[in-house]
Amino acid sequence: MSKGDSKAEEVKHELGEPETKPETPEPLIDLAPKDPIDTLLPQSSEKDIEDKPLTPDPEPVKEQVEDIPEDPLPDSTTSAAEISPLLKFSIGGVKDLLYWRDIKVSGVVFGLTLLVLLSLCCFSVVSVISYLTLSLLTVTVAFRLYKLVLQTLNGTQQPNPFQSLLDMEVTLSKDQIHKYADVILDHLNCTLVCTRDLVLVKNMVASLKFAVFMWLLTYIGCCFNGLTLLILGVIAAFVLPPIYEKYQVPIDNHYNLVAQKFAQVANAVRSKIPGAKPKTQ
């Protein structure tokens, strides 16, 4: 080092100037993009990866939602009160009864109904009801005593043989009474309105038909009374449906011929009546 440089350093030292250190080069910044996943996850060595057992990922827990039963919507066509089992006699049941689907049931109903009607021809209503009730009591009491004797001999206890019938609901609620009363009232009002229209000649043709029907009933009433007509109606109801089911095709053909002849006669009669027009087919 020269003397001039040494003197300059001494002067700077005396003046308090900081000594200048040699500059060291700064490290270069790595600008390569790094994987964000690698930066977030902890680094593991290859040995740790080999030692770690492979386990399947746990399945996501499914939330079990219980099926909540929905309340059935109220049907507007059905009543809130249940109908008594004795009143659940649908049209299909009546049809099966008249067509003798079950011979035993149809035979019992037909026989009992005919027996009651024939008894009414010979005895009064009070006598028929009394005899029928006594007959029914005789059968039920005899059967009950028979079961009691069997229980005594066998030493067993058995329930009442008529328990199923005793458990049957035979009472009527107020809702049911109101329901059937409304139905009867509707039919009664319709009958009264139709009778008024026929008697007061609202429609000439309808009133004349009604007059002819009443005139025919006078002749029928001379030969039969109401009870006899009822007996004939019951017999026809249980006899004619099976016959019609067996010979339906020829009966329908003859019925169509008779209906056409009757329509021709009715049109001829309407043409003679002033103000009435014959029906066009």
Automatic annotation (TrEMBL):
Organism superkingdom: Eukaryota
UniProt cross-references to PROSITE patterns, sorted A to Z: RETICULON
Pfam families attached to this UniProt entry: Reticulon
Record membrane topology: Multi-pass membrane protein
Regions annotated as coiled coil: none
Signal peptide: none
Subcellular location(s) of the protein: Endoplasmic reticulum membrane
InterPro entries xref list: Reticulon, RTN1-4
Residue ranges annotated for the Reticulon domain, each copy included: 94-281
Keywords, in A-Z order: Endoplasmic reticulum, Membrane, Transmembrane, Transmembrane helix
First-listed, main subcellular location of the protein, grouped into a coarse class: endoplasmic reticulum
One CC-aspect GO term: endoplasmic reticulum membrane
Disordered as annotated region, ranges: 1-77
Transmembrane segments: 108-134, 212-240
Start-end of Basic and acidic residues biased regions: 1-24, 45-65
PANTHER family membership: RETICULON-LIKE PROTEIN (PTHR45799)
Protein name per the record: Reticulon-like protein
Organism (species): Ciona intestinalis
